[in-house]
Q: What sequence folds into this?
């Protein structure tokens, strides 16, 4: 049985017809629709002879025993956001199914090959993403907090998980699943505009960005818009406006794909007749290199102090969240690059802005790499998310070739 | 009976004790507390022999018949915002009482002298300021809209006014009150920081600013903060930020006391992980000169088009409200300047940012001028509003001298 990438496209359409509606994909983790998607996966894998197991964190594994206990892992996630896209997460899994079929058809592989569908990558129902992969990676450290989380209907996370056979207190036991892992491969839609703008179907991912998120509070003085001369103002918005613009030259100077975003400014009193007294600004900065990320942050803080002095206002920074960059395995990046070039002529290396399950696996010390396939208009988390069928087929071929190359290298 | 400015300060304290509380002044128009303030005024004027009349718009008039039917008007307003200051509005009225006492004590004046307490200058209860003065000036053109207005308790404006003897449909009949007016004088606290910063107690007001108020909608493209390279962004906030800063050099270039304020920016989706798709910005521009105001607006629009092109976003302007500059009478400005110089040595000419009843009277074609007395820290519409008692006394003296000079000129 040869690899049949067109079958992957057909199966993804079928999955969407089964679990989506007119508003998009509805495969939200810990719901009946998600269970339907998992059942769909179970049936698709059945003819490969791979053995199914659901671990303590709800991750769904299919194991094709090979000549060695060492394992090649292929992974993705069947869950989606509500009103999501038809490819986000499940493309990876269904492409993995096709690769598993091809490998199974060729007889016993040199290494054990496993396909995993991670539980609750999106965190759509309880606001905690990467649930299953962080449990398996051993990086889940917020179980006390998770115990208190509730969905919009007031249902507690532990109760919802129990309905799907998962005991939160035992989730970290899923760590044993990675004990023999030698490599992890993940294919995902890009969810960004880079490959489309370069007119390339596929790219290899260097790693996931480190992120620094801050709330910045500017405090000036409310004053009447009519009776306060321009030179007597202490305008909090002026500080926020200067910083919203300054993060761009800062990103350009640091370079290396740095991105900085001011996603919101909230002004108070926020009325047409008053100078702004306080402006609360959100800032998100990302880089694949830890030192560069630190420079982005330091430069923005320095600029904000300068602007505060210029505007005679106060400025305060509060960290909301941060994560270090997670780099993928250099040797696997090379193999992925080769695979893409062989399948479609040209490859491109790019960082991933969003986090992925692959980042959790890489954090656990397992050699990891990801492939990105072009997203039309860079859209995701919407029913408008789309990728050309011919690009999906190329992505299945590239993943398959990468699996072959990885098995060769690991068994050499 | 000589002028006694200290009595004005004492009466203002008494009024505040009677009608204010620990949160500030509570003389909101069309309330029992406002009626108490009007009764307080009635008693204060009683010994002058001036005859009281409440007109069709609720304005309270006290007329001291003179040697001619031509009238010198002194005016202010007893109403305040909720939790307001002890001087805003009533300083003008109580200073007028003292001037009326002095004139009455000297016998029949050459012209008829009238003191008016305008009804509902603040518009605090129904959101419609300058109610009584716009009715008397004949510029009230929103009676249909006023009929539908309700206060926070759902009480309709016409019903509330009827409880205080005012029929909305007849309010414009108050126009007859200005038939014989030859001049109108008004003293007010500055409500801004200019006189305090110049260390001057008093200033003469050149007129009220013309105002242009707009909402500016910037529309870019929401995009993932992590996966969208800096050069592929269409950031609506960047347009708003550039304009918030550019209005300052524009104001400086137009000069002549121009003020421009961006009082609010509302970003959507307004989250830390997305480039801003839409930013709704408020802009308030003011100038005493109509051509300069037009230049402020044209320059800001031109700049916004430039920024929209630079940022590859769209920009749309919608006018919220505008009013032309209203200039006070040149001859009266001269007399006011003389009066201030004679009372305290130095005068200063300045525009008024906020509107005042005087602007309505001036719009009706009656020669008008205002005096400003220094506000501490420029604060108003708060219980923190304050003016030094010695400055209040100087303001009463200056208003009195201005009344004398105006009567002399009008009867010459």
A:
């Amino acid at each position: 049985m040869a690899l049949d990438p067109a079958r992957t496209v057909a199966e993804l359409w079928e999955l969407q017809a089964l679990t989506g509606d007119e508003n998009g994909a509805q495969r939200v983790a810990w719901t009946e629709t998600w269970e339907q998607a998992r059942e769909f996966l179970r049936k698709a894998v059945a003819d490969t002879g791979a053995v199914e197991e659901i671990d303590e964190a709800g991750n769904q594994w299919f194991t094709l025993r090979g000549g060695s206990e060492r394992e090649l892992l292929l992974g993705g996630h069947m869950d989606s956001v509500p009103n999501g896209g038809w490819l986000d997460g499940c493309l990876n899994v269904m492409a993995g199914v096709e690769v598993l079929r091809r490998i199974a058809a060729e007889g016993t592989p040199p290494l054990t090959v496993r396909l995993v569908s991670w539980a609750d990558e999106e965190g759509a129902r309880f606001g905690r993403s990467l649930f299953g992969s962080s449990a398996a990676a051993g990086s889940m450290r917020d179980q006390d907090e998770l115990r208190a989380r509730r969905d919009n209907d007031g249902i507690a996370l532990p109760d919802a998980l129990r309905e799907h056979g998962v005991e939160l207190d035992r989730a970290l036991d899923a760590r044993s699943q990675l004990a023999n892992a030698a490599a992890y491969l993940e294919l995902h839609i890009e969810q960004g505009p880079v490959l489309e703008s370069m007119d390339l179907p596929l790219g290899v991912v260097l790693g996931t960005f480190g992120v620094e998120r801050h709330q910045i509070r500017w405090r000036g003085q409310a004053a009447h818009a009519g009776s306060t001369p321009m030179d007597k103002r202490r305008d909090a918005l002026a500080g926020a406006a200067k910083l919203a613009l300054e993060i761009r030259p800062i990103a350009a100077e640091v370079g290396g794909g740095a991105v900085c975003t001011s996603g919101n400014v909230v002004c108070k009193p926020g009325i047409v007749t008053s100078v702004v007294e306080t402006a609360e600004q959100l800032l998100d900065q990302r880089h694949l290199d830890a030192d560069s990320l630190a420079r982005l942050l330091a430069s923005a803080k320095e600029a904000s102090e300068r602007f505060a002095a210029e505007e005679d206002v106060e400025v305060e920074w509060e960290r909301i969240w941060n994560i270090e960059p997670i780099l993928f395995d250099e040797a696997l990046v090379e193999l992925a690059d080769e695979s893409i070039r062989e399948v479609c002529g040209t490859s491109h290396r790019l960082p991933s802005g969003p986090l992925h399950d692959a980042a959790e696996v890489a954090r656990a010390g397992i050699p990891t790499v990801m492939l990105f396939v072009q997203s039309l208009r860079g859209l995701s988390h919407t029913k408008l998310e789309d990728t050309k069928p011919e690009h999906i087929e190329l992505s299945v071929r590239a993943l398959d070739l990468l699996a072959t190359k990885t098995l060769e290298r690991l068994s050499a």
Observations:
- The first helix of chain B runs from residue 5 to 19.
- Chain B has twelve helices and 15 strands.
- Residues 5-207+325-410 of chain B form a domain with the Aminopeptidase fold (CATH 3.40.630.10).
- The two ends of chain B are 25 Å apart (CA to CA).
